[in-house]
Design goal:
6-stranded antiparallel β-sheet; PMT-like; Dolichyl-phosphate-mannose--protein mannosyltransferase; transmembrane helix; Trefoil (Acidic Fibroblast Growth Factor, subunit A); alpha+beta
Length: about 700
């Protein structure tokens, strides 16, 4: 029974030493002096802020991409014991002793290093030779821009890693482990999208190839192949969707405290965070009733989040353009919390400004008045043009001048997100439109800044409902309390007193996810062009580079003179030989593909069927995503199929070796700008500007 113990347990494994060697040199190139420079380099100034937010559990919003990449960087900070205490305010600032620089840069370095053997594996899975695969890995290894990005606290190398992992996993052949690789493909695709939105292009590329593959499988009519197509759909559609939701779920669990980015979110979202608005709104009544004291926040939140506001100043009698106004009290939208943001919901059939017992809730379709808390003038609009939006109506608080302009201050409540026509107006949760009864205009934030007479506050207008729905017409109650005093002075004191009732308004995860995703997709910068901005063509032709870091210190000048500035610096600069050759290889591939396609149309088969399918798949994946991987494939194709005679093939092989030698020479030449560990003289720096040197050479001759 125990006879198996008489023999030793033997485990055999096939180890590809090429992969081991490539992994080792990849790690060496990325991890060497990883903590240098011990200063903020380029976009570390932005990603570092998000890492600090994670360490302190503070909510933030980054419109550049989903949170998965940020969480991975924060993981490095967590493992290194980072407490989040560092002021990320400028590039070049030296890190304090509490910042674990090596740990923060470790994950990008590891992913950058592992991309080298993955390039090798992808070429093998595509059916190319070990020589071509080693060539692809070498290009990934010595490409200067890839090294620069993978040695810093940036997300580009992480994105590239998941892109390559998705392609490699999908290329794995049918076997007992195929389901594992297929699932890994879905996970890698979701991770690529979760790092940066541009990862969706790799996801779409994999989906396109998988769709063609599934189409051929379905045509086979065998049950197993149909089942494989269904499994593909589950792994490549369901798994990425679930993973994407998981990223946000973990993100929202980690950042549960109020922070500086709260204002772009809805009141309901802000109230779900610890501190901030949640602290202010704690204990508020849920249902808005007649007599309620409320602040109304515009849901659109653009150009800035703001609240319906009024003050004692009136509109000018005559505007600068000669148009007249009603000279009523100004109504604006104010981007700061203020006592003049408070309004009282009044029943037009009663004089009371307090909540009755029991409270009478306001429902969808009810008509009421909004009285400004101080000094209780009612929200009003007439058929008078707004100051900056002449096609809309002016909105004011009515002042009785004893002239023939009676007040028109009745507003109908329209709950936009209601579930039924009997819905009650709820604090924070209800999104409402206030429609003027007499003129059928809706209260709207125009977004225009009033002149100095309006204190540069935002214009509020009445917009015809017939012109269509827009979020700028929608408001929600943010702060709310039940008014209890009829007297003016006592009522003013009430506006500063805390509420008494406690109501829980926790949003569901899906509601928070959908809002956060929408804000991430729609948040915009100020529209100004970034000083480092460039076009994609600039990078293809290497007409641009970015100075990531300049050494801030002085180096000793010795006995020859005073200290001189150190010229050590880091630039994002690609290997010109690799980039130019990869662009050329893409053009060559396209021309050869069209040539073969035309000849196949005429029933001329220049390539065996397996070689043709390999050629098409390599182009779909590499030309559609990674020209640097297409280059060795094109070189092997030329050697195998176009260089038919042995002398010609030997000559071509010698040229390829010479070309790789040139690429290595460029890598070594640009190495000081890649690692930034060598002080360069002005003449050495000028010599590294290959573009300027080439232009001078052309002009000279």
């Amino acid at each position: 029974m125990l006879g198996f113990l008489k023999r030793p347990v033997v485990v055999t494994a096939d180890i590809n030493l090429n992969v081991v060697a490539l992994t080792a040199v990849g790690l060496l190139s990325r991890l060497w002096q990883l903590a240098y420079p011990r200063a903020v380099v380029f976009d570390e100034v932005y990603y570092g802020q998000y890492i600090s937010f994670y360490m302190k559990r503070i909510f933030f919003l980054d419109g550049s991409g989903p949170p998965f990449g940020h969480m991975l960087l924060a993981l490095g900070g967590y493992l290194g014991g980072f407490d989040g205490n560092f002021l990320w305010n400028r590039i070049g600032a030296e890190y304090s002793s509490n910042v674990p620089v090596w740990s923060l840069r470790l994950l990008p370095a590891l992913t950058g290093a592992l991309s080298v053997p993955m390039a090798y594996q992808i070429l093998l899975e595509l059916g190319f030779s070990h020589c071509a695969a080693m060539g692809a890995a070498l290009l990934m290894l010595i490409e200067n821009a890839l090294i620069t990005q993978s040695r810093l606290m940036l997300l580009e190398s992480v994105l590239i890693f998941f892109n390559l992992l998705a392609v490699l996993s999908y290329l794995k052949p049918f076997s007992l482990s195929w389901w594992f690789w297929l699932m890994l493909t879905g996970v890698a695709c979701s991770c690529a999208v979760g790092v940066k939105y541009v990862g969706v292009f790799t996801y779409l590329l994999v989906l396109a190839v998988a769709s063609v593959h599934a189409w051929h499988l379905i045509g086979d009519r065998t049950l197993s192949h149909v089942g494989a197509a269904v499994e593909q759909a589950a792994a490549l559609l369901v798994v990425p969707a679930l993973m994407y939701l998981l990223f946000f779920y973990v993100h929202l669990i980690l950042v549960y405290r109020s922070g500086p980015h709260d204002q772009v979110m809805s009141s309901a979202f802000q109230a779900s965070l610890e501190g901030g608005l949640a602290r202010i709104t704690q204990g508020q009544p849920l249902e808005v009733a007649y007599g309620s004291q409320v602040t109304l926040k515009n849901v659109f939140g653009k150009p800035v989040p703001c609240w319906l506001h009024s003050h004692q100043s009136t509109y000018p009698m005559i505007y600068e353009n000669g148009r007249g106004s009603s000279h009523q009290q100004q109504v604006t939208c104010y981007p700061f919390k203020d006592v003049n943001n408070w309004w009282i919901v009044k029943d037009p059939g009663r004089h009371q400004l307090v909540v009755g017992s029991p409270p009478r809730p306001v429902r969808h379709g009810d008509v009421g008045q909004l009285g400004h808390g101080m000094p209780t003038r009612f929200l009003n609009t007439h058929d008078v043009a707004a100051p900056l939006s002449p096609h809309s109506q002016e909105v004011s608080c009515y002042v009785d001048y004893n002239i023939s302009m009676p007040s028109q201050n009745l507003w109908r409540l329209d709950i936009v997100n209601r579930e039924s026509d009997a819905d009650v107006w709820k604090t924070i949760l209800s999104e409402v439109r206030l429609v003027h009864v007499n003129t059928s205009v809706a209260l709207k934030l125009s977004g225009a800044h009033l002149p100095d007479w309006g204190f540069r506050q935002l214009e509020v207008v009445g917009e015809k409902v017939s012109r269509g729905y827009h979020e700028s017409m929608v408001w929600n109650v943010e702060e709310h309390r039940y008014g209890k005093s009829q007297e003016q002075k006592e009522r003013e004191l009430e506006l500063h007193s805390p509420a008494q009732m406690d109501v829980s308004r926790n949003l569901s995860f899906m509601a928070r996810f959908l809002e956060l995703q929408w804000r991430m997709l729609t948040v915009k910068s100020d529209g100004s062009e970034h000083k480092y901005s460039s076009s994609p063509l600039d990078w293809v032709t290497l007409d641009t580079s970015i100075a990531y870091w300049l050494h801030p210190r002085k180096s000793a000048g010795g006995s020859q003179g005073p200290p001189v500035p150190s010229q050590a610096q880091i630039h994002l600069l690609g290997n010109v030989v690799i980039w130019a050759s990869a662009s050329l290889a893409t053009v060559v591939y396209a021309l050869l593909f069209l040539w073969y396609l035309l000849r196949r149309r005429r029933s001329i088969r220049d390539l065996p069927e397996d070689s043709w399918l390999r050629w098409v798949l390599a182009g779909a994946l590499c030309a559609g995503g990674w020209a640097i991987l297409l280059l060795p494939a094109v070189l092997q194709h030329i050697s195998d199929h176009l260089c038919r005679s042995p002398p010609l093939r030997s000559l071509f092989s010698a040229l390829v070796v010479a070309w790789y030698s040139c690429a290595c020479h460029v890598f070594i030449t640009l190495r000081p700008l890649t690692y930034g560990d060598k002080s360069l003289s002005p003449s050495e720096l000028k010599a590294l500007r290959w573009k300027d040197s080439w232009d001078i050479l052309i002009r000279k001759y």
